[in-house]
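Posting for a labmate who doesn't have an account.
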Amino acid sequence: MKTSTLFCFPPSLGRAFPLLLALAAGFALSLSPAQAQSLWNGSSSTAWTDPANWSGGVPDDSTDATIDTNAGNQPVLAGAGNTAALTVGNTSASGPNTLLTLQSGALLGSATGIIGNETGSTGQISVSGAASSWLQSNSLSVGLSGTGTLGIASGGNVSGSLASIGALPGGNGTVTVTGPGSIWQNSAALSVGESGNGSLAISSGGNVSNTLGTIGDLSGGNGAATVDGPGSIWINSQALIVGNSGNGALAISNGGSVSSNTGTLSASSGGNGTVIVDGAGSIWKNRSTLTIGLSGNGALAISNGGSVSSNTGTLGFLSGSNGTVIVDGAGSLWHDSGVLTVGTNGQGNLTISAGGNVSSSRGTLGGTVTGNGTATITGAGSTWYAGNFVLGNAGKGQLTLGAGALLSTNNFTINSNSTLIEEFSAGDASGYGGIAVSDSTSLAGNLTVELIGGYDPTAGTIFQLFNYGTGSVTGDFSTYNLPGLDPGLAWDTSTFLTSGSIAVEAVPEPATWAALAGLLALAATALRRRKR
């Protein structure tokens, strides 16, 4: 079990929780030899309240209860019951039939709970029906070292303090919370895939709440969580960490909702965190910072009308980290009310495509000297609205604008270490989005124009790279990398700093120049003869 605190985050994220320490303390207390024990045998019926079904009598709040048989009658509680520590699936004697059912308004109280205790054990608990409840005063582990399953359905309710799904190496835990009124409420932290394998599924209006939430906590931990359907909610009153030192994955779909104070994908160098927010009405709300790739590899995908909100966003926070975000499809949105930095100290990659939208009060690509940020905006309706935009703050930045894409900002700055790439295909020049600046534009660095799809522009074609509005323009690109044109054509950049556009113009062929030279020579000769 864990003997030290977890990865410690920057002050903005708070300190990680020593969950297994607390769980271990609770379990050690609950399994103390001094505690009275009662073992389920099911010799008479399925009734929890029948003394004949227990080796030590019906448990009470001073008695530990253990259910460890895979055959015969399995316990059902339809009234009230109490126990000190509850273990379902203690040893390898248990199996897939080892099941405790709470139904018909049952109310069970316990100090702690373990489902799937030892390696090789298997246990299940089902809490189903309106007013059916399991209340723990301390900790709950689903899949401690064995295999555990907890199902909460049809208005069932489970509440407790600390909770872990897949706590120790080899542990496998699954929790499902499904249906309106089905609730799992934790007054402290919840870990999905602590050091083992954990799965959490919230669907059809189920509700889960806790303080700090982690998915894929320690090295070797694998966690996956899904929040699916309208009314399905996961509330994290503190941070939500996806991939702390393990592998974490979160999927929010079909109108599901997740909220947290801060969000972090891949907190340590060994962590891998992935979040998908897909479908209209699907949302992840962060009241504060959202970090994609704090120390390791983090990836966020927003698609098909999903949305994410935060007040500070960063991709690739620490040196060596990598953060990737894709916002794809009409109605898909990442709204950041503060500063959004792509490549703070590490590598950041942002793609906005097929009508996706990003908004922020400031946008920065390449934050510090070690930061490297790239952003690609492509497709009709794809837009990044930023109050101020800096391409290459102290680090390197690269912005690529594709067909129909738009960057809209009050003030635009590109520094000498960065590159702006604008792509054009046939028909793009007219009505092209480009970069719209309402106030000031400061230019340096490199401009690259690319013609894609075999596009060969003709003389007179104008490419609108910037719309300066009424704002000032200072500086210029140090390098213009413009593609080759057909013979007889050349680029005209003479009005770029005033119009924001470049054009293709016709130039005479060499033979034409020779003919003109000959005509001028003849004219000069004729003029001289007249003067004589």
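Reply:
Got it, the structure tokens are right above this. The longest strand covers residues 333-342.
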